[in-house]
Amino acid sequence: MTTHRNDSRARLWRTAADAAIAVVLAALVSAGTIGAGGGQHPGAGAFALIWLCAATLSVRRLWPEASLIGSMLVLWYYLALGYQEGPVYLLPAVAVFSYVMARPLKHSLIFVGALLVAFPVFYELILHDRDRLLVNIALTAIYLSIPTVGGVIAREARNARAQAAAANRERHRADERVAMAREIHDVVGHSLAVVSMNAGVALHMLEKRPEADPGVVENLRAIRDTSTRALDDLRSTLAPLRDGQAPELRPTRTLDDIPALVADIGKGGLTVDYRQTGDAAQVPGRVAAAAYRVVQESLTNVIRHAAASRATARLECGEASLTIEVTDDGRGGEVDPDRPGQGLAGMIERVEAQGGTFGAGPAPGGGFAVHAEIPYTGS
Fold first, then answer.
1. How buried is 368 (Cβ within 10 angstroms: 0-12 exposed, 13-18 middle, 19+ buried)?
2. Quick one: 155 and 8 in the same domain?
3. By the 8 A CB rule, do 350 and 373 touch?
4. DSSP 367
5. Would you call 274 helix, strand, or coil by DSSP?
6. What DSSP designation does 355 have?
7. How many helices and strands (H and E) does the chain possess?
8. Cα gap 40→282, rounded to integer Å
9. Tens of pLDDT along 279-309?
10. Which DSSP helix (H) or strand (E) runs through 227?
11. Contact, 27 vs 61, CB < 8 A?
């Protein structure tokens, strides 16, 4: 709503500015027409047509075609009535300039070419100036070429400024990405490194004690290994950003990494039944990476929210798509479509980015279910 209101206000200001310029041009052309007639008053009709022709310029940026056609028709009517020639030609020239500046070069050349034919025909059939056909063609070509070339130059200059502004914005975005990558790496990377180090120290101490609980040792090993892998993933993802480049969108995980993920989660006490069917070799890398993250986030949500003791992860590598289904025997719960949570939102974005479909909600037999299907060609 605000953007629409701002656009409307900008168009109104442009039209008002063009109207003011049209008034100034009408006054100058009127004064010049008196001078071109040797000081003789051209008549009220001539002034009325001059101001009407100038009025069409008030919409030269809003409706360039209407401004150009309207100004030309008024000019020809002015000349057909036998009024004094001279500065009145300036007004349609401004319309030609504005049209060429606003429209693509191909369209502009077609329009200007039509005028190049129409002017000599007008002089020949309406003004009966049959003795100066070649002269009229040459004068028309000069008359139209000046505003046409000016419009092309102005348009290219405007495009160059727009490209420079876009490049400047991209540089600012690159600087912001570098700053963000540095901050994320320093904060999250430091925390993961501390977690991995402390888990490693505790694991080293417990391994020296025969009476240590094997389950605790296994959990500490899982914490150390998981935090180390997460730190490696973080560094590989943020490294291009820290160099001022766009993120390298390469798959960091594949379907072959899912069994290790399931095993790590199983060490924390959640029993996970993982099954994969079909030919995994035909699954594109980006689809496999998205599937890994969907399974990872789904099982993480089971641990954090479901209060479940068992989960099932199924991957079916079909001929044209990969189907993912993760269920649990926890408490389930509805998903707010307006506020799905960061985890679900991330999975939805990953799946839809590959052209797939995603669904999540209470399972028919209890618990919670996540279902996604990602086509191979959508990536």
1. buried
2. yes
3. no
4. S
5. strand
6. T
7. 11, 5
8. 88
9. 988 999 889 989 998 998 898 888 877 788 8
10. helix 214-242
11. no
Least confident of 78-92, 137-151, 171-185, 316-330: 171-185
Judge contact between 297 and 343, C-beta under 8 A: yes
Q: Which two tokens stand for residue 35?
A: 């001078």
If we measure between CA atoms, which residue out of 96, 70, 90 comes closest to residue 149? Answer: 96
Q: How many domains does the chain have?
A: 3
The domain spanning residue 310 has which CATH number?
3.30.565.10
CB neighbour list of residue 197: distance below 8 Å, 6 or more residues apart: none
Segment 239-248 long-range contacts (CB within 8 Å, at least 24 positions apart): 241/177, 241/178, 241/180, 241/181, 242/178, 242/181, 242/182, 242/185, 243/178, 244/174, 244/175, 244/177, 244/178, 245/174, 246/177, 247/177
pLDDT at 131 over 80: no
Are 53 and 78 in contact by the 8 Å Cβ rule? The answer is yes
Q: Which two tokens stand for residue 71?
A: 């100004």
Q: Which pTM does this prediction carry?
A: 0.52
- Report the relative pairing of strands 310-317 and 368-375 from DSSP bridges: unpaired
CA distance 339 to 56: 52
Give per-residue pLDDT as tens, 308-334: 889 999 999 999 999 999 999 888 777
Residue 12 lies in a domain: yes
Contact indicator for 98, 151 with CB cutoff of 8 Å: yes
Angle between helices 105-125 and 64-80 (to 10 degrees): 10
Rounded to the nearest 5°, which phi and psi values hold at 329?
-105, 25
**Domain annotation covers residue 247:** no
